[in-house]
Amino acid sequence: MSLSLILVPMAIGILSTTAETISDIIIKKNITTREIKKVRTCFKDSILLQKTLREYGAEVKVQDENYIIAKFSEGKIVYYRENPEDMFEMSIDLDTDVDGLICSIKSLEEDYARNVQSYTYDKVIAGLENNMSIEKEEVLEDDSILITINID
Predict the structure, then answer these.
(1) How confident is the model over 56-65, as pLDDT tens digits?
(2) Beta bridge partners of 36
(3) What is the pLDDT of residues 19-77, one digit of tens each?
(4) What angle do the packed helices 98-126 and 46-56 form, to 10 degrees?
(5) What is the distance, to the nearest Å, from the Cα of residue 81 to the centroid of all Cα atoms in its chain?
(6) CB neighbours (10 Å) of residue 59?
(7) How far, in Å, are 15, 90, 116 from residue 128 at the CA level?
(8) Burial, 49: exposed, middle or buried (Cβ in 10 Å; 0-12, 13-18, 19+)?
(9) CA nearest 41: which of 152, 116, 148?
């Protein structure tokens, strides 16, 4: 018997709304301030968020698993939440251009989604039992991973 799993980078589609929300706030409300507060993100895993921020080149300071400060050349983003079950919210303090930071946020979201997918893939593979083996593995056009597992 075989079982097929598809690991879809769904977070990419869901997460991309965060940067659009920021640009909507800036453009529609014509914000002239250098600070934007309380924008909801789809980031939930503190460790993966820290990893993604560091991979992107941010200077990361972690006060605890619910409060992370990331410094970029364009400005500073503070990620915070009440408890580990919540999604992070962020506040942004701009040093330079808004467009540069929005591009950075979009890239971070895509990188975070890839890190979530990679983490999930590793957990699935590590969780295979002795009577299971990978029959087929394929990366699809949308970067989803199709894994066919043979169960003896």
Answers:
(1) 999 999 999 9
(2) 92
(3) 455 545 544 444 555 666 778 888 999 999 999 999 999 999 999 999 999 998 878 89
(4) 130
(5) 15
(6) 12
(7) 29, 37, 19
(8) buried
(9) 116
Say which residues have a Cβ less than 8 Å from residue 87's Cβ, sequence separation at least 6.
40, 41, 42, 43, 44, 81
Write out the chain in H/E/C secondary structure.
Answer: CEEEEEECCHHHHHHHHHHHHHHHHHHHCCCCCCEEEEEECCCCCHHHHHHHHHHHCCEEEEEECCEEEEECCCEEEEEECCCCCCCCEEEEEECCCHHHHHHHHHHHHHHHHHHHHHHHHHHHHHCCCCCEEEEEEEECCCCCEEEEEEEC
